[in-house]
Amino acid sequence: MIKMIHILLFVLLSVLLSSISNASVNDFCVADLKAPDTPSGYHCKSPTTVTADDFVFHGFVAGNTTNTFNAALTSAFVTDFPGINGLGISAARLDIAHGGSIPMHTHPGATELLIMVKGEITAGFMTPTAVYSKKLKPGDLFVFPQGQLHFQANSGKGQATAFLAFSSSNPGAQLLDLLLFGNNLPSDLIAQTTFLDVAQIKNIKARFGGRG
C-alpha cells in the first residue's frame, strides 16, 4: 500500500512539473471558492490569507459503496483541494465493491491515469473502430486519453481500490447512464435513437430517477 502511494505521488508530481498554467507563472493560485468559477479556473485568494492548509487534502479514504453502482469516488478536485487551482492536476480514490462498476463515462477536460492498489479491475476505453480493455492487478497502471468513453468494473472476488490522477484540476464527468436515464428525455425518443425497448428504458429510468 505504501509503495502504491509513492507511485501516485511520483505521477502527480511529474504531471505538475510538466504543466503550463497561470499558477506556474505566479508560483501558485489558491482557489477562492467563494468567487465564481471561470474557464481558466477560480480567482486567486489573496496571498495574505493563504495558509499551509490550502495545500493539504484530508480524507483520501474509502467511500460508501452502498449505491446503485456499488462504487465510490473520493475526489480531490479543486473544489475539494483549493491549492491545486490552475496547476493542471487533481486526484481521486476509487473503491468498487464486488460486482460493482463505474459505468461508461467521459472526462471532456482531462486525461485520466488509473493506479491499481487492491483487488482486480477490468478497465477500458472505446474508439469508433476499437476497444482497449484489460484486467488490472495491484501495481498496474492504465491511461484513459482525454474525452474517450471509458469504464471500470470490479472483476475480482473482493473489493477493489485504485488511485486516479487527472491532467486538470477540475476534470468533470459525463456518465452515459445518467445522461440517458436520469432526466426527462422522452422514453420513445431514447428508444428511437438507441434501439432499446421502451419498457426496459422506463425500468432503467425508475432506477436513476428519470421521468418521461
TrEMBL record:
It is found in: Secreted, Extracellular space, Apoplast. Keywords: Apoplast, Disulfide bond, Glycoprotein, Manganese, Metal-binding, Receptor, Secreted, Signal. PROSITE patterns: GERMIN. The keyword Transmembrane does not apply. PANTHER family: GERMIN-LIKE PROTEIN SUBFAMILY 3 MEMBER 3 (PTHR31238). Belongs to the germin family. This is Germin-like protein. It comes from Lupinus angustifolius (Narrow-leaved blue lupine).
